[in-house]
């Protein structure tokens, strides 16, 4: 089970940190990802991190502004979002898939488990 938190309403230029806590004792064997879905749009990739954090990747639209990280001791993956823009408004989802060390995944169909999402709204 994946549970996201940390969403909210923030003005443009502000920051938020999303958290996603996973249940179970095998969190360290999963590649984690963040995705988002705006109203009327398809779910899109935001960021991904390999099981030990050695490899990350970002959507071009968030590079330099968002940072994904994880703490395997706490079964938690984070998404630090800085310099937020109105177009970042969406429901943000975390996702998990069991992959070998160093592997990442950027496509929705690659992920096996999903959280319920947390709303992020950026006002202009």
Question: What can you tell me about this protein's structure?
Answer:
The chain has 124 residues and is an all-beta fold. 0% of the residues lie in helices and 49% in strands. It contains no helices and 11 strands. A hairpin with a 6-residue loop joins strand 4 (30-37) and strand 5 (44-49).
Alpha carbon gyration radius: 13 Å
State the major sheet: 7 strands, mixed
Helix content: under 10%
Record field, number of beta strands? 11
Shape: globular
User: In DSSP terms, counting alpha (H) and pi (I) runs of 4 or more, how many helices?
Assistant: 0
Low-confidence stretches: none
> Approximately what portion of the residues adopt beta-strand conformation?
over 45%
The SS-based structural class is mainly beta
Distance between the termini: 34 Å
Element-by-element helix/strand order: EEEEEEEEEEE
Overall mean pLDDT stands at 97
What keyword list fits this structure?
mainly beta; seven-stranded mixed beta sheet
Q: Summed up, what is this model?
A:
The chain has strands spanning 2-5, 8-11, 16-22, 30-37, 44-49, 56-58, 66-71, 76-81, 90-98, 113-114, 118-123. By secondary structure, it is mostly beta strands. The mean pLDDT is 97.
């Amino acid at each position: 089970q994946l549970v996201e938190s940390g969403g909210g309403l923030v003005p443009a230029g502000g920051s938020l940190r999303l958290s996603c806590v996973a249940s179970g004792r095998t969190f360290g064997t999963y590649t984690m990802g963040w995705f988002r879905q705006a109203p009327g749009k398809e779910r899109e990739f935001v960021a991904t991190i390999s099981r030990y954090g050695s490899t990350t990747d970002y959507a071009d639209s968030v590079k330099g502004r968002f940072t994904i990280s994880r703490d395997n001791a706490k079964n938690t993956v984070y998404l630090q979002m800085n310099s937020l823009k109105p177009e970042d408004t969406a429901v943000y989802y975390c996702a998990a898939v069991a992959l070998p060390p160093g592997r990442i995944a950027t496509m929705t169909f690659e992920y096996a488990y999903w959280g319920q999402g947390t709303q992020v709204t950026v006002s202009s």
